[in-house]
Amino acid sequence: MLINILFYVFSATLIGAALGVVLARNSVHSAMFLVLAFFTSSGLWLLMGAEFLAIVLVLVYVGAVMVLFLFVVMMLDINTAQMREGFTRYAPLGLVIALIMIAEIAYVVYYRHLDLNAELLVAPTTAVAVSNTKSLGAVLYTQYAYPFQLAAVLLLIAIVAAITLTMRARPNLKKQDISAQVAVGKADRLQIVQVASEKRP
To answer: For a Cys staple, 24 with which of 29, 120, 128, 140, CB 3.0–4.6 Å?
Structure first.
């Protein structure tokens, strides 16, 4: 009974947070709603018995990706008004895609409800000697070692790209040019001005 109540609470919170991500006018507020969505999603993973996926969702997405996203949003001078100008133009296409996704989710739920092999969908109640985290770690670092390293390289490229975007040229930005300072000569720094002396009356 308690698990069902927690499931509906987390689900309602997740839907509200997802709507907040889309409808919030401030980019930082959208990021905060996305953090709430990640936390509630991790709660749903815990209810399903996937504790490894729940903790990874919090550590990776909330602890790393969202910090990087907030860093980019706060450092870049994004003109949000200009970005919202094309919202009404692309709204019908977004509505069509949303309806297609809702239809796919409804089909999956209906197919699962009518599945004859329902016993395969029930989680085993007997305790096993190996935890989910140990099993996933054994597979991740043996069979999927190269894709795991590739994902790490892609994240590194994303971090470097975000830092590069913050270092772009912007108006009214005072920036130090080291090469120009080193190549300066004494004639550029010192100017001798001849001033005529005043004559006494």
So the answer is: 29
